[in-house]
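quick one, three chains, predict together pls
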Amino acid sequence: MNLNLILLIALLLAAFWTVLTIRLVRSVVGLALTSAILSVIMFRLGSPLAAVFELSVCSGLISVIFVTTISFTSRVSKERLTVRRRERFVKFWYLPVILIAAGLALMHLSRPPVFKFPVASVTQDAQSVLWNLRHLDLLGQVVVLLAGAFGVVILFKEKKDER
Amino acid sequence: MSVEPLQLFWYFGIFIILISICGAYCILATFNLIRALIGFEILVKAATLLIILAGYLTGNQALAQALVITLIVIEVVMMVVSGGIVLWLYRYNQTIDTRKLSNLKG
Amino acid sequence: MPSWFILVPFACILILNLAPKTWMSRFAFWLAAALACAQLILAAGNQAILQGVVDPLAKFFNFSLAIDGLSRLMLISIAIVVFAALLAGRYTIATAAKRFNFTNLVLIALIGMNAVVMSTDIFSLYVFVETSAISLFILIAANKDKSALEGAFKYFILSAIATVFILFSIALFVLLSGGTSFSLIRAALAGQGGAFLARLAMLLFLCGIFIKSGLVPFHGWLPDAYSSAATPVSILLAGIVTKVTGAYVLMRLVTQVFVLDARTQNLLMFVGALSIIVGAYGALGQREFKRMLAYSSISQVGYIVLALGCGTPLAFAGAAFHLFNHAIFKSLLFVNACCIEKETGTLDIEKMSGLSQRMPVTAASSLVASLSTAGLPPLAGFWSKFIIILALMQAGKNTYAITALLASALTLGYFLILQRKVFFSKPGEGVSGVKEAGTGLVLLELSLTLVTIGVGIAFPWVYNYLILPIL
């Protein structure tokens, strides 16, 4: 339990850092770090396959995509950055206030509602579920990848006569 | 786990809510399109954690993993497509600041 | 049988892309159009074929699909709108390469929507909703002009937020029921309908679907996306994609999976009525043709949701029928926009006048579609609105019924103003060189008009054949 708590707090801190840091590339690094911590938590919750997938795809592929996009769009100068940061914080001052208020309200709830969770009678392993039971999802993944391929062809190809 | 499932659920639940608020704040409080995408990514991570937690608590980890894997594939394709859109927006406007992109009105 | 609706288009896409490009570019449109026609004939045909035929693929693939009355109606609507969009695209899009990409993406959207209407599993539903949405983002942005990219991005980010809501609710459903199929979730929710987590999960899902269907107050993306996309894409987007990924999902889940208690009903009716009013007012002040149609769409989806919130079987039938009618008359209006844009080069209402002398077929079909939207007898739109208002009065919700009626009058008002300005006034200087649109588009307009009139006149037959099986 303690380890889970530490991991969760680390996840939260990584998410905070991703949101609050100024430079975009650092934000992307923070996102990769968040993915890594999330994948460790998933591993501890008994989902090794998903954890590996999350680590390799989200920490890897998505960060690469973001860095590619960022490198094609130019960076803003330092001075405008600091002004924007101040503006940004001032604009949404009510958000932390709501957060604190919600926390206080939750603490005053008499006790959290109780439920029973249904427990699966048959334990299966992930491979058999994915490959045998959820064919429709697999087809969906293939179709989505096909759509993504078209997207890449249409959106990333720059022809001279199109601009 | 020495802690009963319900307590575990509430512990994780509070963190999931906090992370979602982080992600939502990122989308709302930014003028940079790419940061909005990063905020969306954080929200999806919170949802992923909730799915895996649900799988763990009901003993149905296999189903949860299958869902998460499909979800991650969809997420990647969404990021690729939106990255393409942002790239073209930059090429046309030389900026990805939402305050300066206001072609559509009304 | 259900899986054929998904696998055959999928096989077509593979054939189109794996074969040599030179043959396929010319062949692509005809193949896709043939697919849409085949789907229309199959879905509208004998019901026994849909459910009775033994599926030879069932041994290999374990798809959780089922076709019932509502799915059948949706399959027919999808086929009609996809055919209209393909035909409009053929005559409007400039280069062959772009047409090829357009056809492929429309086929992907077709696969996505077919799977959504036949799915019996909430996560598969979500996967295919995303598939259709992604193909639409690409289609809107493929235009690559400034406003199209912004419209696509707005649609993307709001759709992404809706996705996150839906994912949270799916996770909570897994927690409550241990699975994702409709029957499991229904059983779990019926057991603990009032529990906090169940309510929260349903509310989150509803919020996500409201955003995706463009209901007020989440409609911010809709006018921009509809008006900035290329017009064939707008036909697809307005005619069917927003309806399938939004209104249909709402109909399926609210009546068959969720617990429809008084609170949910009130929420749905309130959101529906609000959308009707905001859509109708929003359409009044618009200058651009497609933006006006977009606000009108918001209004019509409001009718569907209002009827859904009413809760009685008659109201549900009215909602489904209105969805079908909306697919047809909205596509017809957008096809008219396509013709106008092609011939006059602009969609600004102020610049057009007196087009009826130059483009008689477009003017006539536009008039029929507008009157159907407003609900004039004996056109199709009249019957669906009549059923909705009747159901509302039967259930005792008189204020909502009167609101719907008044908004109908408002709809009639702004459409007649539009018709007068664009078509039936004196021809101005801007329209001197304009002639009627090409044969293909004219035939498309005529056929859609005939369907609208035909469904209206042959209403009793349509009611028995298409609507009653839904209940």
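The longest helix of chain C spans residues 146-177.
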